[in-house]
Protein: Aspartokinase
Amino acid sequence: MPILVMKFGGTSVATLDRIRRAAKRVGREVANGYDVIVIVSAMAGETNKLVGYVEETSPLFDAREYDAVVSSGEQVTAGLMALTLQEMDVPARSWQGWQVPLKTTDAHAAARIEEIPPANILAKFEQGMRVAVVAGFQGIAPDNRITTLGRGGSDTTAVAFAAAFGAERCDIYTDVDGVYTTDPRISENARKLDRIAFEEMLELASLGAKVLQTRSVELAMRYKVKLRVLSSFGEMGDDAGTLVCDEEDIVESNVVAGVAYSRDEAKMTLISVADRPGIAAAIFGPLAEAGVNVDMIVQNISEEGRTDMTFSCPTNQVARAEAAMKKAKEAGEINFHDLVADTGVAKVSVVGIGMRSHAGVAAKMFQALRDEGINIKVITTSEIKISVLIDRKYMELAVQALHDAFELEKVA
Ligand code: ADP
Ligand code: ASP
Ligand code: MG
Structure:
C-alpha cells in the first residue's frame, strides 16, 4: 500500500480532544488506502517546560542529559495517539526514536539524522498494522544515548521518514493553514502562498520562520519529498495548504517572497582585541568548540592595532559564548578589554529568489526602516536574502513596514 507521512505539531496535539481530531484525519487517510506514518510533537508548551527545568537545574548543562529530559514530551503524545487510534479500531502502535531505530550523530541537542532503516516498521505494515505513530524530534546516537534534533525537529523527523519510506507525500499539520508571506501573527496583511520554492522556504526557515525547521526543508529538497503545510483545524478534505516545490513549478512570484524575523538574537562585542592575522580564528574557533552558533560578524575599524569584533548568536548561548571567551583570554589565546552582550536585539530579513535578477531591494528595505525611524545595527546579505539586526522593540513594526513596502499582500 502507498505510504503517507502526517506530522502533527504541538498545538495539534495539545489536548486529548485535539489528539482525537488529529486521529480522525489519520483514520480518513487509512480509509483512503494508505499505510500512514504519523509523527507527533510534544503537547504545546511541554518542550519549553522541560527545557526550563534543565536550564534552571544546570545553566551550562550536559547536552546528553538535556536530550534525556526534553525528548520525553514526544513519548507521551506518541503513546496517546496510538491509543486513540486503537479506540477507533485502527491498528496502530507507537515507536520511540530508538525503537525504529532513528540513528543520528552524537551532536546532542542538535543531532543530524544518519539513517532510518525501514525494515521494522514495514514488517508491521505487512502484518496488518496500518499506522506507525513515531515520536518526533528524537533519535539514538552511536553510543545508544537518546538525542534530539534541535527545536522544531519533528518536522525533520517527518521529512526524513517520508524520504526513507518513499512516501507519496509528507503533510505537516500545524496551527496555520500554510506558509504565509510573513508570520500571520505579526502582520494581518500576511498572505498565504499556494506554493513556495524550496530555496525560499529554506532561507525563511533558517532566518526564523518556524513554520518548518530548516533541516526539514533541506532534506525535502535533497530527496525530492512532496512537502505540504496545512492546518489541522481546517475542514477535513480542505487540502489547500502550501506546497513547497521546485522553483520551476511556480508560475507567479514576487521579487521578495517573504519577511522573516528572529526574536532570540544577541549582539556581542569584544572591545579592543589585537588587529593581527589569526585573530578571527582565535575568537571563532573556541566559540565553535563551545557549540555557539555565530551568525553575523562585523569587524570594526581598527585604531592603533586594536579593533572591536561584533558577532551575533542566539540569546540562550550568551553564557556559553562568555565562558568560551573568558577561557580563551585566560589561556592567553586572545586579549580583549571587555565583552559586551546586548540581548535586546532581533533580526529581520527579506527573502526572494527574484533578488538574483532585481537590483534595489536593499535600498528599498533600508528606506522603509528609515521611514519608521528604526536604526540598523548590523547588515548581512546573500544572493537571495538581506538581514538586519535592530532593537527588539521595533521588530514587529519592522516586519509590518517591510511587508507593506514590498506589497507582499498582493500577487505580482
Ligand atoms: P507546530 O507546533 O505545528 O510545529 P510551530 O509553532 O512550530 O508549529 O510553527 C507554526 C507557527 O509558525 C505559526 O503559528 C506561525 O506563528 C509561525 N510562522 C512564522 N512565520 C510563518 C510564515 N511565514 N508562515 C506561516 N507561519 C509562520
Ligand atoms: N517538541 C519539539 C519542540 O518544541 C519538537 C517539535 O515540536 O518539532 O521543539
Ligand atoms: Mg514546529
